[in-house]
User: What shape does this take?
Amino acid sequence: MSAFSTTIPPVADQEPMTQLLAPDGTRTPHEELDAVLAGHSTASPAGAAEGDASATADPGPDLASPERLRGYYRDMVMIRAADLEATSLQRQGQLGLWASALGQEAAQIGAGHAARTQDYLVPTYREHGVAWARGIEPMRLLEMYRGISHCGWDPYELRTHPYMIVLGSQAPHAVGYAMGLQRDGLVGTGDLDSDTAVLALFGDGASSEGEVSESFTFAASFQAPVVFYTQNNQWAISVPTSVQTRVPLAQRSRGWGIPSIRVDGNDVLAVLAAVRSAMDAARAGEGPRFIEAITYRMAAHTTSDDASRYRSSEEEQQWADKDPILRLRRHLAQLDEIDETYVKACEEEAHDLAMRLHHFIHDMPDPDPVAMFDHVYAEPHPVVERDREQYLQYVAQFEDDADSTEGSGATGGGSGR
Amino acid sequence: MADPTDPQASGSAPDSRIVRINLTDPGEGLTEAEIVDIKVSVGDTIAINDAVIEVETAKSAVELPSHVAGTVTKVLVSIGQEVPVGAPLLEIDTSGGPAPEQSPAAGDAVEATPQETAQAAEQDRGQDPDSQRDADPGQSVGSAQDAGSAQDAGADGAAEDAGEDQPKNLVGYGAPSAPQRRRRRRTAQEEDTQVPIDRILAKPPVRKLARDLGIALADVLATGPDGTVTREDVLAAQQRAMSGDTVTVHDGQYFPEESPQAPEGLDAAMKSSRHQPFAGVTSDERTTRVPIRSVRKRTAEAMVASAFTAPHVTVFNEVDMTAATRIVQQLRGSREWSGVKVSPLVVVAKALLVAIRRNPEVNASWDEDAGEIVYKHFVNLGIAAATPRGLIVPNIKDAHLMTLRELAEEIDELAKTARAGRTPLSATREGTITITNFGVFNIDSGTPILNPGESVILGIGAIKEKPWVVDGQVVPRQIAQLALSFDHRLIDGALGAELLRDISAVLEDPALGLVWG
Assistant: This one.
């Protein structure tokens, strides 16, 4: 007998996955999460009654009402259309890059709607559905991927941090922000409309980054109001999750004493309920939570990647059968709460959005090449002023031609790469 | 030359209803791509985002969607061609396209007078009117440069203004040559003088090399990043100097008098000469050098790996294919099989599968690292296919589970896909046994080389009518030679021979398939 505990389970399926909607759309009851969806937050014994009474949103407290469900469906259809359009735009030379979130719509729309207005969300670079749910127009995302804006929205106004490209770098920021909330007295007062929590989003690949582990440590030590939310989309570029971890990701945080759950990330209701419940627990002062949402990145890692080089079409087909949008539509059909007219209207609206994005990007004027110096410091700064001057001189030494009007002054100047 | 009054500057040809689709950088920082499929032809009507061209880059195979709706008026590239980022691919007439999808800006432009559009263009660019000078069609600087880039692209004359016609691509991700195309504004002092030599960019060892060889850096065509002179450039200049070629100096940049022309009939890949400006016919015109890349490179690696790790043994057998040929004809004539392409290859494939079933030990591979022989309980049947891009071996997954008809359909599909150059990488992986059909070249036999990772490959020669002795009588029969190569590390001669005998037996007496299958 070894003195070491050797109960390291194989990754496969040692962790149960909570699911409210089966791939065929059938609803599975779940006592605790159903209560969360109904608007009776079970997160905090003290906050429960409060939550019920203070449910303010007009559509009523029921997060799974037919009206809301149709809304999630529309959201997902819209964001998928925007996603596909963005991919086309990249292929047309209009975006430098695009990271598709195809297949992760439920994991994102669910999480985005689970957060309350005052909550602060800290995303990766692939949270297009979360951004949509937070009211960020897809145009703003495309601008960033075009390389002409650093963020595109006001992080304070929309309570959503800029997209973070460096894997895991946002996790410490999220924990720090959450610790700030604690110190501002915005946690655990029992008021669901002002108590605030942070949703830190990252992927299965980022879970291997040191920052994520360090963030777990701080969040647990200080019982910070932060929910770590991982969309495990099975692939970190070409590296499968099985290489990233020997135990299910959901089990990792438990070593830090952070309660966790694994949910079906292609099930919008399971995601919504789990994130809402965790966020309400965090805002009530119960400390951090961790959620692993099992989903699938149906497209390549980015437009620069070719997924067929490392995964089989059989695998892709297998996941296509679990499509989150199809699943919700089947559920709505079972409830008899969706008809062809609605489906068609959504598709038309989505097509309109795609065409709007298409023309918005194609017709977009290029920004002033020196605009990039505008927001480096809040106030005038001598070094930046000098840089701006020098850059203007640099740009001015080129003759005008088609290229130089097309943003090459901003992106192709300097070293040229 | 580009129309200086062109309001769109975004891939528009002189006639503003004609919009050009150029090769964008489909990845990050890629510089060229190979055309693997052209999905439209002249006269086709397309909508926004319709896939029009498929290209393969160093990173991936990518379908390029059109950014406009309209009618295809010109196809400027051909399959197999390697083109640089920014090169024009198609021309689309947008005037008759589905109106609702059309950008209002493009529509307005048709109506505008040249002067108005010129002003609009200036406003668009937000730059001083000085730039008009640059757009003067008579100016030689532009034409020399642009003609050069168009020839690089291997496109016809319609593409001459490719440089001016760059769409609003993100140049930062575009070809590294893009910044080079931008011209420095000429100051008064520079106007009449050559560029001072100290402004030529080159690393110290390159400068020393040039000095040692007696080459003036000013005479060297710079191809390095940001217009730097590389070691190769100096060596190329030396060769040119020796062969008497000349270069012309244009505004501080250097261009060869003529771009090298690839001779007809050679792989179009070599026409991509942007990075190897002198790839092609050597200066003595006695040889042609073609970069080793893509499928040719992979084929070579695979063949070397296979031939030098697995000791090959090949056994041969002549087979009377008369009965098998008759089956093929019967199936072709039957109504149930109409629409299915049946060839002797299908019957041979089935015979091979039956024979593998009787000799499952041949369906194995040698795992050197693990020190194990891996016996497969499935057959992924590879079919070697000669494609425009070279030899590839896609395989039919789980062929052992298939009926004859399924097999026929799969082989047909696989061949079509391969010929179209659309075989996905996954189809070439995890093969277990391969068939190669020499018959299509009308030769009798050969010694096939194993597909790496496999232990058996079956070659089929052409089926020819020959005299054959049947029951003591010489009669004309349909004869073909089979050649079976196997990895002698794990398959002994007796086993290999038995496999070939079983295949032959099924082909000569297909009824055995009922007994053994």
About this structure: Confidence is low (pLDDT under 50) at residues 1-14, 97-181, 186-198, 244-279 of chain B. Chain B touches chain A through 59 residues (CB under 8 Å). The CA atoms of residues 294 and 389 of chain B lie 8 Å apart. The first strand of chain B starts at residue 18 and ends at 22.
